[in-house]
Amino acid sequence: MQHAIRRRIAGAALIMGLVGAGAPALAGPAFADAPATGSTTTTQGSTDLPSFSDLLRGITVDYAEAHWNWTAWNDSTPVAFGADQDNYQCAEFVARSLAAAGLVPGLGPDDPQDSYFHYTAPNGKTYDLLLITDLPQYHNLYDYLMDSGLGTDVGDHPEQARPGDVVVTYAGPGGAKTHTGLVATAADGTSEATVDAHNRARNHYGYHFYAPSHLIRIEPLGLLTGFGATTDLAVTPAAPKSLMAAPKAAPKSTAPLLTRHDPAGPQV
Asked: Where are the beta strands (DSSP E) in 94-232?
């Protein structure tokens, strides 16, 4: 696992360096022909190279795979498959996975929980990234994905799920959002897509368990045309410094954890 993460990080760091050279780099041949769907690109010599989007989605999945059973964001004590994680719930798990790939500008995967509770995005809005349910007083994780241009809600289409996409469950009263997870593997013709999620701890759990649901297609380059288009992100979509080293277990903290419970109901 650590070797795979290092390979992804090295590739992503190289590409981020190209992007960081300025916006024109995105218009160069290496990016102009990159498929919008995030599929792999092929170069001369029949060598398959992952696209920029694939690399960042891969880092997102690697983080999820390494943290699906953590007790809390700063406590790597493993819990059993299906166990509750009251101090590390579903939206926070997805948000930290995205932050690990630099997809939450200014926020890193090891930042304090309160930074996710009160995240101020480049558009000036404050988002509660610990929340998936719609509450009038909060902009939640789903709102962040839509506003940023990072996510596109494609509806109930599990057959389109790719690793690094997000699934949102609508099982609350009146079809309210109740749960979210990260797609770990795509359908392969014989098996359905699988999901990593928190509270309860799930690893490669069948996509159908999250029905009724919508698939949120994650496109990292969407940040360049979302709210980040009016900020320096359009020129330098830099990843957090934590990407420059292999992920490691965060030390346990004696600080009190910020407990946030999604009000819509239990999570699968």
From this structure: 119-120, 126-127, 151-155, 166-169, 179-185, 194-197, 202-206, 213-218
